[in-house]
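Lab manual, section 2.4: Encoding a predicted structure.

Procedure: take the sequence of the chain (176 residues), apply the prediction step described in section 2.3, and record the output as C-alpha coordinates. A sample record is shown.
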Amino acid sequence: MSFPLSPRARSGPRRRSLLAVAPAALLVAGCSAGSEDPGASGGSRPSAADRARARAARDSRELAERYDAVVAAHPKLAERLRPLRAEVVRHAEAFGETAEPSPSSSGSGSPSASASAAVPAVPAKEKDALAGLAAAERELADRRAKALLEAPGELARLLASVAAAGAAHVYLLTKA
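Recorded output:
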Protein backbone atom coordinates (compact mmCIF):
# COMPACT_ATOMS: atom_id res chain seq x y z
CA MET A 1 0.00 0.00 0.00
CA SER A 2 1.42 3.36 -0.95
CA PHE A 3 0.99 6.52 0.99
CA PRO A 4 -0.62 9.43 -0.73
CA LEU A 5 1.47 12.50 -1.40
CA SER A 6 1.04 15.43 0.87
CA PRO A 7 -1.47 17.96 -0.34
CA ARG A 8 0.95 20.81 0.10
CA ALA A 9 3.56 21.19 -2.61
CA ARG A 10 7.16 20.94 -1.52
CA SER A 11 9.31 23.77 -2.63
CA GLY A 12 13.03 23.65 -1.98
CA PRO A 13 15.33 20.84 -0.93
CA ARG A 14 14.32 17.98 1.32
CA ARG A 15 15.86 17.33 4.70
CA ARG A 16 17.78 14.27 3.47
CA SER A 17 19.27 16.28 0.64
CA LEU A 18 20.47 18.92 3.05
CA LEU A 19 22.00 16.33 5.37
CA ALA A 20 23.82 14.71 2.45
CA VAL A 21 25.21 18.01 1.18
CA ALA A 22 26.15 19.54 4.57
CA PRO A 23 29.52 17.76 5.00
CA ALA A 24 30.62 18.77 1.53
CA ALA A 25 29.55 22.35 2.17
CA LEU A 26 31.55 22.46 5.40
CA LEU A 27 34.60 21.13 3.60
CA VAL A 28 34.27 23.73 0.86
CA ALA A 29 33.78 26.44 3.46
CA GLY A 30 37.15 25.57 4.93
CA CYS A 31 36.29 24.06 8.27
CA SER A 32 38.97 21.42 7.80
CA ALA A 33 41.67 23.71 6.42
CA GLY A 34 45.01 23.65 8.21
CA SER A 35 44.55 20.38 10.05
CA GLU A 36 46.87 18.23 7.93
CA ASP A 37 48.62 20.27 5.27
CA PRO A 38 50.38 23.36 6.66
CA GLY A 39 51.13 24.61 3.14
CA ALA A 40 47.45 24.75 2.18
CA SER A 41 46.52 27.85 4.17
CA GLY A 42 48.09 31.26 4.35
CA GLY A 43 48.25 31.46 8.18
CA SER A 44 51.22 31.87 10.47
CA ARG A 45 52.11 28.17 10.64
CA PRO A 46 53.57 27.93 7.11
CA SER A 47 55.69 31.00 7.68
CA ALA A 48 57.02 29.52 10.93
CA ALA A 49 57.84 26.30 9.09
CA ASP A 50 59.51 28.28 6.32
CA ARG A 51 61.58 30.16 8.88
CA ALA A 52 62.59 26.91 10.60
CA ARG A 53 63.53 25.37 7.25
CA ALA A 54 65.61 28.42 6.27
CA ARG A 55 67.33 28.43 9.68
CA ALA A 56 68.17 24.72 9.33
CA ALA A 57 69.57 25.30 5.82
CA ARG A 58 71.67 28.21 7.07
CA ASP A 59 72.97 26.15 10.01
CA SER A 60 73.99 23.32 7.69
CA ARG A 61 75.71 25.76 5.33
CA GLU A 62 77.64 27.30 8.23
CA LEU A 63 78.64 23.84 9.43
CA ALA A 64 79.91 23.01 5.93
CA GLU A 65 81.96 26.22 6.04
CA ARG A 66 83.38 25.10 9.37
CA TYR A 67 84.40 21.78 7.79
CA ASP A 68 86.05 23.78 4.98
CA ALA A 69 88.00 25.83 7.53
CA VAL A 70 89.25 22.70 9.29
CA VAL A 71 90.29 21.10 5.99
CA ALA A 72 92.08 24.29 4.97
CA ALA A 73 93.98 24.37 8.26
CA HIS A 74 94.65 20.61 8.37
CA PRO A 75 94.86 19.17 4.83
CA LYS A 76 95.68 15.70 6.19
CA LEU A 77 92.11 15.50 7.54
CA ALA A 78 90.54 16.18 4.13
CA GLU A 79 90.01 12.53 3.23
CA ARG A 80 88.40 11.77 6.59
CA LEU A 81 86.15 14.83 6.58
CA ARG A 82 85.09 14.81 2.91
CA PRO A 83 82.16 12.36 3.34
CA LEU A 84 80.91 14.12 6.46
CA ARG A 85 81.04 17.51 4.78
CA ALA A 86 79.21 16.09 1.75
CA GLU A 87 76.44 14.88 4.05
CA VAL A 88 76.18 18.31 5.67
CA VAL A 89 75.85 19.90 2.22
CA ARG A 90 73.09 17.40 1.35
CA HIS A 91 71.33 18.36 4.58
CA ALA A 92 71.43 22.03 3.55
CA GLU A 93 70.00 21.08 0.16
CA ALA A 94 67.25 19.02 1.80
CA PHE A 95 66.23 22.09 3.79
CA GLY A 96 66.11 24.17 0.61
CA GLU A 97 69.62 25.62 0.31
CA THR A 98 70.23 26.21 -3.40
CA ALA A 99 73.86 27.27 -3.72
CA GLU A 100 76.72 25.25 -2.30
CA PRO A 101 79.81 27.22 -1.36
CA SER A 102 82.76 25.53 -3.01
CA PRO A 103 85.49 24.32 -0.68
CA SER A 104 88.15 25.44 -3.16
CA SER A 105 86.87 28.99 -3.72
CA SER A 106 87.93 31.68 -1.31
CA GLY A 107 84.67 33.60 -1.68
CA SER A 108 85.22 37.05 -3.11
CA GLY A 109 81.57 38.10 -2.67
CA SER A 110 80.28 39.76 0.45
CA PRO A 111 77.88 36.94 1.50
CA SER A 112 80.76 34.47 1.70
CA ALA A 113 82.93 36.92 3.56
CA SER A 114 80.25 37.64 6.16
CA ALA A 115 79.44 33.94 6.60
CA SER A 116 83.07 32.96 7.01
CA ALA A 117 83.48 35.63 9.69
CA ALA A 118 81.10 33.60 11.89
CA VAL A 119 83.32 30.50 11.65
CA PRO A 120 85.55 30.32 14.73
CA ALA A 121 89.30 29.96 14.44
CA VAL A 122 90.55 26.44 13.85
CA PRO A 123 92.77 25.00 16.62
CA ALA A 124 96.37 24.21 15.71
CA LYS A 125 96.15 20.56 16.76
CA GLU A 126 94.18 18.16 14.54
CA LYS A 127 92.63 16.44 17.55
CA ASP A 128 91.36 19.77 18.89
CA ALA A 129 90.01 20.73 15.46
CA LEU A 130 88.09 17.45 15.28
CA ALA A 131 86.79 18.00 18.80
CA GLY A 132 85.58 21.46 17.77
CA LEU A 133 83.75 20.00 14.77
CA ALA A 134 82.23 17.30 16.97
CA ALA A 135 81.05 19.95 19.45
CA ALA A 136 79.48 21.98 16.63
CA GLU A 137 77.75 18.88 15.25
CA ARG A 138 76.49 17.92 18.73
CA GLU A 139 75.17 21.40 19.47
CA LEU A 140 73.39 21.58 16.11
CA ALA A 141 71.90 18.08 16.50
CA ASP A 142 70.59 19.04 19.94
CA ARG A 143 69.03 22.27 18.60
CA ARG A 144 67.37 20.37 15.77
CA ALA A 145 66.03 17.73 18.15
CA LYS A 146 64.39 20.50 20.18
CA ALA A 147 63.09 22.31 17.09
CA LEU A 148 61.38 19.22 15.70
CA LEU A 149 58.91 19.26 18.60
CA GLU A 150 57.31 22.42 17.20
CA ALA A 151 57.75 21.69 13.50
CA PRO A 152 54.95 20.41 11.27
CA GLY A 153 54.96 16.77 10.10
CA GLU A 154 57.37 16.45 7.20
CA LEU A 155 59.75 19.11 8.47
CA ALA A 156 59.83 17.40 11.89
CA ARG A 157 60.75 14.11 10.24
CA LEU A 158 63.51 15.81 8.25
CA LEU A 159 64.86 17.55 11.36
CA ALA A 160 64.85 14.24 13.25
CA SER A 161 66.70 12.49 10.46
CA VAL A 162 69.32 15.21 10.14
CA ALA A 163 69.74 15.40 13.93
CA ALA A 164 70.38 11.65 13.98
CA ALA A 165 72.93 12.02 11.19
CA GLY A 166 74.61 14.79 13.18
CA ALA A 167 74.83 12.49 16.20
CA ALA A 168 76.46 9.86 13.98
CA HIS A 169 78.93 12.50 12.76
CA VAL A 170 79.81 13.26 16.38
CA TYR A 171 80.62 9.59 16.92
CA LEU A 172 82.73 9.43 13.75
CA LEU A 173 84.60 12.60 14.65
CA THR A 174 85.40 11.49 18.20
CA LYS A 175 86.41 7.88 17.57
CA ALA A 176 90.14 7.33 17.38
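Check your result against the sample. The helical segments are 15-29, 44-73, 78-94, 110-117, 126-147, 153-174.
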